[in-house]
Design goal:
This protein is of the alpha/beta class. It has 13 helices and eight strands. It has helices spanning about 20-35, 35-50, 60-70, 75-90, 100-115, 140-155, 170-180, 195-205, 225-240, 260-270, 290-300, 320-325, 330-335; strands at about 130-135, 160, 185, 210-215, 250-255, 275-280, 305, 315. Bound molecules: guanosine-5'-diphosphate and magnesium ion.
């Protein structure tokens, strides 16, 4: 508050009307902080609390920190990843005291999470085609609905293609979402060729001048060859409708609660398909939200969205600054100790 309460001289004009995004940003940060509270508390209270401040870093302190991270069920991968960062930062003199750890992680992690670009790449000429892939149960269909809701809300007229034709229930699930969101959906009969649904979707998107075509896919693509064949067919279906460069985004949905498994899936999909972004679903249901860090590092594909619950509003475009702030939200911890 203090920052903004500086008194103005009476004749001083306020700066030109920039839209004030502060309340919205603050709301988003609160929502994110709440959603990843399980991860946040583990990190702050049990891990950073364990080492104490005001000490010169030495091997013992780093070993204790590592132990505390693992004990706190922070995930072996994430603990190792963070410890590697800290050990090399200590060796090359970027950090010296325990007080340096948090500021260092804040800066370094933000940089790592943003340098590949987190924004959706839209086609120069609409429609933008976004293919959504991932294993069964990862959260694809829900994430497609969330994306549709977010796109519509930001003025992008969206068509859905229910190309998971293996189960009638999957089509029904997406249909229900489309009705709630108020966007059009293209479906095929159960067992229909998924590419034919993508084709119909592309046709419809062009017909009505939609901005975005979102294609939901089946998760039953156990082998790389199946996956590649399926995705190639869907790509060709879009190409047949002369949508240049489609799909413009291939978003891989990962279940954040699965930790290392999510990393393995991501590597498999990355090899089979040209994955351009990650949608990390179910961040709300895990104390392992730090997996974002190791996934980002290992998979080398930017996180573009996070899923924070089961409703369409429970998502956010990934904002690395906010994510890191929410992860290290020490203030939030002291303000709301009862949430622990
Ligand atoms: P699909 O098989 O990949 O299409 O997965 P679904 O979209 O059907 O989702 C599987 C389950 O995960 C459903 O019960 C969803 O409600 C749930 N789910 C998806 N995303 C999230 C999320 O971000 N948070 C939580 N808590 N649940 C989610
Ligand atoms: Mg599905």
């Amino acid at each position: 508050m203090g920052l903004f309460s500086k008194k103005k001289k009476p004749d001083e004009q306020p700066p030109p009307a920039e839209p004030d995004t502060r309340p919205e940003k603050k709301g988003m940060l609160q929502k994110l902080t709440r959603a990843i509270s399980r991860t946040r508390m583990v990190l702050n209270r049990r891990v950073l609390g364990a080492i104490g401040l005001g000490q010169k870093i030495n091997d013992d302190i780093l070993d204790n920190l590592e132990e505390a991270m693992i004990e706190a069920d922070f995930g072996v991968e994430t603990s190792e990843f963070l410890m590697d960062l800290l050990r090399s930062a200590w060796k090359n003199g970027r950090i010296e005291a325990t007080d340096d750890i948090l500021p260092f992680l804040r800066t370094d992690l933000k940089q790592r999470l943003t340098h590949r670009g987190n924004a959706v790449k839209f086609a120069d000429k609409p429609p933008t085609v976004i293919l959504v892939v991932g294993v069964n149960g990862a959260g694809k269909t829900t994430s497609v609905a969330k994306l549709a809701w977010w796109l519509e809300k930001s003025g992008h007229h969206t068509v859905l293609a229910a190309a998971d034709t293996f189960r009638a229930a999957a089509v029904e699930q997406l249909k229900t979402w489309s009705e709630r969101i108020g966007c059009e959906i293209v479906t095929g009969a159960e067992g229909a060729d998924p590419a034919s649904v993508a084709h119909k979707g592309a046709e419809r998107a062009l017909e009505i001048g939609a901005d975005v075509l979102l294609v939901d896919t089946a998760g039953r693509l156990h082998t790389q060859k199946n996956l590649m064949d399926e995705l190639r067919k869907i790509r060709n279906a879009c190409a047949a409708k002369k949508i240049e460069g489609a799909p413009h985004e291939t978003i891989l949905v990962l279940d954040a609660t699965t930790g290392q498994n999510a990393v393995n899936q991501a590597m498999m999909f990355k090899e089979a398909a040209n994955v351009t972004g990650l949608f990390l679903a179910k961040l709300d249901g895990t104390a392992k939200g730090g997996a974002v860090l190791s996934i980002n590092e290992k998979v080398e594909v930017p996180v573009k969205f996070v899923g924070l619950g089961e409703k369409v509003e429970d998502m956010q475009p990934f904002d690395a600054d906010q994510f890191v702030e929410a992860l290290f939200d020490l203030e939030g911890l002291t303000e709301n100790p009862e949430q622990a």
